[in-house]
Amino acid sequence: MPKRRLASALLAVALAAAPLLARPAAAHQLWLEREGDSARLYFGEPIENQRERSGGLLDRIPNPKVFAADPAAALPVQRREDHFAISLPRGTGDVRMIEDGLAPFGRPGTEKVKPVMLAREGRAETRQVLDLELVPVAAGGNAFTLMLHGKPLPRAEVTLVAPPRWERRLHTDAEGRVTFETPWAGRYVAEAVHVDNTPGGSGDGAYAKVRYVSTLSFTVDKGIPWTER
C-alpha cells in the first residue's frame, strides 16, 4: 500500500477509535446542504441520517430565513416533503439560515428558554454574520473560530459528524479556535450550542434565556471514499 494511503487509513482507524458519545433524541438541529445553485435545509439528526418530514416534526419549523450575503435579503424558501428547498442566485458564496420564530419552552413554574437555530453551509468566507457561528480562520481550511456576538467563545463544546456517521466532540481553546480532522470525502456537519442568560420577550412569549444551536456544513472533495449503505 502506498505510504500516503497507508497514513490516511491509519488516521481513519485512530479517529474511529475515539469515544463515540450518544446524543439525546431531542437534540435536533437544522443544517444546510448545497449542490450548485440550489440548497436544502434539513431538520433532524445528521449522525443518524435522520430527516424529519412534513406532517410531522418538520412542521415545527415555522419560518426559516435563508440568505446569501445580507440577512435582510432573505431568499424564497419552499417547504418540501423532508426539507426546505432554496434556489440560489448565481455566484452565491456561503449560505446561512436563521430560525428565531420558535416559541419559548420550559416546564410550568420554571424559567422559559427561547430557542434560536442557526446554520451555515460553506467555508469560503472568513466573516461572522450569525450570532453564534463557526468561522474559518482561512478560506477552505479546517481551523475555525467559534464566534458569539462578534467575540471568540473559548472552552465551548463543538460536535463534528463525519461522512461515515462518525461523531467526535471537541472543545475550542482559549482563543475560541478548534480544528477538525477531515480524512473522508463527503459532507461534514459541525454543531455548537450556547445558552445566553439574557431575558426578553413579554407575556406568554417571555423568556429568561436564549439557547443558540448553530451548525456548519461543508464538503471535502478528496479523501477516503465513503458510500452510504
Largest sheet: 7 strands, mixed
Mean pLDDT: 89
Discrete helix count? 1
Radius of gyration: 18 Å
Overall body shape: globular
Number of strand elements: 16
Query: Structural class per helix/strand content?
Result: mainly beta
- Stretches with pLDDT under 50, minimum 5 residues: 1-26
Kindly give the count of domains. Answer: 1
The first-to-last residue Cα distance is 25 Å
Helix fraction, binned, reads under 10%
Task: Describe the strand arrangement of the main beta sheet, using strand numbers.
Answer: 4-7-8-16-15-12-13
**Sequence of secondary-structure elements:** HEEEEEEEEEEEEEEEE
Keywords: Signal
Pfam family, one: DUF4198
Protein name: DUF4198 domain-containing protein
Signal peptide: 1-22
Description:
The protein has one domain (3-220). By secondary structure, it is mostly beta strands. The chain has one helix at 3-16, and strands at residues 29-35, 38-45, 50-51, 65-67, 77-79, 84-87, 95-99, 113-121, 132-136, 143-148, 151-152, 157-162, 166-171, 177-179, 186-196, 209-220. The strands form 3 sheets. It has a 7-stranded mixed β-sheet, with no helix packed on it. Strands 1, 2, 3, 5 and 6 form a 5-stranded antiparallel β-sheet that branches. 6% of the residues lie in helices and 40% in strands. The chain contains 1 helix and 16 strands.
